[in-house]
Design goal:
The chain is mostly beta strands. The chain contains one helix and nine strands.
Length: 178
């Protein structure tokens, strides 16, 4: 009788155990304010993977790059977006000092997964919970009239949104050196 009871108890226990599952996390990141690297936009870091592993795409060309990854349910996950496929994270967004970055974990973003699929909406380089990114137009002028200008021209580069040297040419349509 004890064996039958033990068998029934273990059988019932097995039937009522909930299997560990993964959840799908969909990332939507607005890149409209950026010059997107030719190698693409990626989500990386932590359990998500190295840069270049999980590409985000923008098939409708609206500036919002999307893609999904699976993570274990209830997992705490660090992640970051990269503007390009850079294995050394040199093209990752710069989040230092922002409320959604963790300075103890490379200034990456993070989230707590639940037991159901979820969506993260944000903007590249900015702590936000939507894909609506505020932006302003800024005009840069540099007086090069007393400088020797390269035949390749003058370019704006570096920082958030300015890309690599050679990406943004500065123009001098009236040839006044500015």
């Amino acid at each position: 009788m004890t064996r039958i009871f033990t068998f029934l108890f273990l059988t019932l226990l097995t039937c009522f155990q909930v299997a560990k599952a993964d959840v799908t996390v969909t990332f939507n990141v607005n890149m409209d304010h950026m010059i997107v690297n030719g190698s693409g936009v990626f989500v990386a870091g932590g359990t998500i993977g190295a840069p270049g592993t999980n590409e985000l795409t923008d098939p409708d060309n609206d500036g919002i790059y999307s893609g999904s990854v699976t993570v274990p349910d209830n997992a705490f996950v660090y992640y970051i977006f990269t503007n390009g496929n850079c294995g050394d994270y040199s093209c990752k967004e710069r989040m230092t000092g922002q409320s959604c970055s963790d300075p103890a974990n490379f200034d990456d973003r993070s989230f707590q997964a639940g037991t159901t699929d979820m969506t993260i909406n944000t903007c590249f380089g900015v702590c936000s919970t939507t894909t609506s990114c505020a932006s302003v137009d800024v005009t840069f002028e540099v007086n090069m009239s007393n400088e020797t200008v390269s035949p390749d021209g003058v370019f704006l580069a570096g920082g958030l949104g300015f890309g690599q040297p050679g990406d943004i040419p500065m123009l001098d349509p009236d040839n006044d050196g500015t």
